[in-house]
Amino acid sequence: MSRSYEQGHDHHRDRESPSPAIDDASLRDYLADVLAPGEMARVEKALRDSAELRARLEEVRNNREDVQLHTLGAIWHRSRLTCPSRQQLGSLLLDALDPDLAGYFRFHIDVVECPYCQANLADLESQTQGPSGPQASRTRQHKILKVSKHLLNENENR
Question: What keywords are annotated for this sequence in UniProt (predicted)?
């Protein structure tokens, strides 16, 4: 390579402005995934190259205001992953669930005292308590199951 090319190439490097330092705000934006793709790549490369920057990233992660929003427990609670569906709660009221599953739902409602499920269950109970009452509804359910039991047995033989 000629000397003049190397000098010109070095001169070109001198004209490039150095990348700005990665501050805590950039690290917060990195964690929130709101950086532009080029900036995201720059931060990721810097993190790979610097143990000190990785330690700062961990500090920033632990000191964020929203740190509790991203814990497994918070996500689990927010998504109500252990809550039965409204249909399952209806089946619980009709005693039409497997006893183990019904036991879990009772534990969830009575011991854990999930306010979401308690409200859903109370609403369903109020709907079943009409002029005929909840016992009539259960009796109706058992009659339907008794009459259609032969259909269930036919399906099992297929």
Answer: Coiled coil
- Mean pLDDT (10-residue bins), the chain, 158 residues: 46 55 90 87 93 92 71 72 92 94 94 90 85 63 75 58
Q: Give per-residue pLDDT as tens, 95-110.
A: 999 999 999 999 999 9
Tokens matching residue 24: 């805590």
Quick one: what percent of the chain has pLDDT higher than 70?
Answer: 73
Which candidate, 18, 21, 17, places its Cα nearest to that of 52? 21
Residue pair 140/108 in contact (Cβ under 8 Å)? The answer is no
The answer to whether 89 and 123 have CB atoms below 8 angstroms apart is: no
| pLDDT number for residue 13 | 44
d(CA 25, CA 21): 11
Hey, where are the domains in the chain? Answer: 3-70, 82-157
Whole-Å CA distances, 58 to 20, 27, 111:
20, 9, 37
CB 24 within 8 A of CB 60: yes
